[in-house]
Design a protein that fits this description.
Length: 172
């Protein structure tokens, strides 16, 4: 893989995981401004250490570890300020958040598989409603169906997806 391809892949990983990284940092700091500052520092460190990341390895656990160190550094540097967290508490919060992120990733993979199992018509309805953010009214007009029929169809699809995800999570 060329350097350009690996750089593009790395940038894609950082971009796709910004919300998760922000949520991870925020869960430990509880302050939006501080979390945004620490996330920016984390992004800089991730970029500086990109050569240490092995392509094909899970990105998020590696990024979480760097973010955790950035949070600890932030807490240490702000130690003179009125800060409610200490390093031990940050570690406990970090471990719990990482566990939840792993569970979320499992649910996301299961949901992706379950969406693939839907009929083409139902997949299209899900895509249009949840990925393109079309309203129920817009869907009913484009499908030439009543709004209540679209709502019922989406309710049935959501139930089917929930059952499928639950089944796949038990199987895993």
């Amino acid at each position: 893989m060329s350097d350009i391809d690996s750089t593009e892949q790395f940038v894609q990983q950082i971009t796709e995981n910004q919300n998760r990284l922000y949520g991870y940092v925020f869960s430990m700091l509880g302050d939006h401004t501080q979390a945004a500052d620490v996330l920016q520092e984390t992004n800089l460190v991730l970029w500086r250490k990109k050569s240490q990341f092995r392509s094909g390895e899970p990105f998020l656990p590696w990024a979480f570890a760097i973010a955790r160190f950035q949070v600890l550094a932030h807490v240490r540097d702000r130690g003179r300020d009125r800060c409610v967290l200490d390093g031990d508490l940050v570690e406990v919060l970090a471990l719990e958040t990482e566990k939840q992120a792993e569970q979320f990733e499992g649910v996301r993979r299961a949901l992706h598989g379950c969406i693939a199992e839907l009929t083409e018509t139902n997949r299209d309805l899900v895509r249009r409603r949840y990925f393109q953010s079309l309203s129920i009214d817009e869907l009913s007009v484009s499908l030439q169906r009543g709004a209540s029929a679209v709502k019922v169809a989406l309710l049935r699809i959501r139930r089917k997806l929930a059952d499928c995800v639950e089944r796949k999570m038990v199987e895993a």
